[in-house]
């Protein structure tokens, strides 16, 4: 094979590889560009327990839980609303989540310590307002 043909083959293979990577990246971007309104449903949830007390106080206790967004166990309810005003990362996300950090970690299949470490270690990791973990694309310029 002549030197010129080798050069043409190398250029053609390189162009094909670039095209394949571009199509794959576009397809992956489309898959990852889902809405932020998905809600994780645990496979099995514990049965709620009735608060102890007299019959007169039971109605008041249930009403308080519904208004405060807390479930029966006193944990923040992530399914009912946003936990953050905007996507946040790092120490800012940890501070803003406060007591909801454990619930957000559980929602994303992590322990509180794992989520805290990930947020502090990787600047591209963010928490969406609904409590979902995502990675911010820092390679693509954004029009702000």
TrEMBL record:
<feature type="transmembrane region" description="Helical">
    <location>
        <begin position="7"/>
        <end position="32"/>
    </location>
</feature>
<feature type="region of interest" description="Disordered">
    <location>
        <begin position="35"/>
        <end position="91"/>
    </location>
</feature>
<keyword id="KW-0812">Transmembrane</keyword>
<feature type="compositionally biased region" description="Acidic residues">
    <location>
        <begin position="49"/>
        <end position="73"/>
    </location>
</feature>
<keyword id="KW-1133">Transmembrane helix</keyword>
<protein>
    <submittedName>
        <fullName>Uncharacterized protein</fullName>
    </submittedName>
</protein>
<keyword id="KW-0472">Membrane</keyword>
């Amino acid at each position: 094979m002549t030197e010129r043909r080798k050069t043409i083959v190398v250029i053609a293979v390189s162009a094909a590889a670039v095209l394949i990577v571009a199509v794959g990246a576009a397809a992956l971007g489309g898959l990852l560009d889902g809405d932020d309104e998905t809600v994780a449903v645990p496979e099995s949830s514990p049965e709620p327990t009735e608060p102890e007390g007299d019959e007169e106080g039971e109605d008041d206790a249930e009403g308080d839980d519904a208004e405060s967004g807390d479930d029966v166990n006193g944990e923040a309810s992530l399914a009912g609303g946003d936990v953050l005003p905007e996507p946040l990362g790092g120490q800012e996300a940890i501070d803003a989540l406060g007591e909801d950090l454990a619930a957000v970690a559980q929602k994303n299949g992590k322990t509180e310590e794992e989520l805290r470490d990930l947020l502090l270690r990787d600047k591209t990791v963010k928490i969406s307002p609904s409590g979902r973990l995502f990675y911010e694309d820092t390679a693509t310029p954004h029009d702000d």
